[in-house]
């Protein structure tokens, strides 16, 4: 057993880690954990970018409804559609980050169970 395994076992044996792992977070807590993880800067960047793109999508949609000609409506509608697709892609990435955090939490639970079963 190397030093890393000993550090993992020590961390899993602590009371705070086991109590945290046994707690099942709700959706709001899962969203907040994405802003605390390893990719927190990317998550924050994409969250802010998503809000900005949403503003532009609303603006393009309003311009679509107020356009006087059909070509102008097609241009503003295409822009609004592309922006909504970009928002959708970012939301999918965000949900994948949440799923990754959920899987890591489950792996830590399995590690905790293995450590408690191995030691008498």
List the helices and strands and how they pair.
Elements: H1 3-13, H2 15-22, H3 27-34, H4 40-66, H5 70-118
How would you portray this structure in words?
This protein is mostly helical and 120 residues long. The chain has one domain. Helix content is 86%, strand content 0%. It is built from five helices and no strands. The longest helix has 49 residues, at 70-118. The two termini are 17 Å apart. The model has no long low-confidence stretch (mean pLDDT 83).
List keywords for this structure.
120 residues, mainly alpha, 86% helix
Radius of gyration, taken over Cα atoms and rounded to an integer in Å: 22 Å
N-to-C series of helices and strands: HHHHH
Please report the total strand number as a whole number: 0
The structural domain count equals: 1
Largest sheet: none
In short:
This protein has five helices and no strands. It is an all-alpha fold and 120 residues long.
């Amino acid at each position: 057993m190397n030093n890393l395994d000993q550090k993992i076992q020590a961390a899993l044996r602590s009371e705070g880690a086991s109590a945290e792992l046994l707690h099942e977070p709700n959706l709001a807590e899962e969203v907040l954990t994405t802003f605390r993880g390893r990719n927190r800067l990317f998550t924050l960047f994409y969250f802010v970018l998503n809000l900005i793109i949403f503003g532009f999508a609303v603006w393009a949609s309003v311009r679509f409804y107020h356009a006087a000609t059909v070509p102008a409506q097609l241009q503003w509608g295409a822009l609004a559609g592309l922006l909504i697709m970009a928002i959708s892609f970012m939301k999918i990435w965000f949900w994948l980050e949440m799923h990754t955090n959920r899987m890591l939490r489950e792996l830590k639970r399995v590690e905790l169970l293995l450590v408690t079963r191995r030691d008498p």
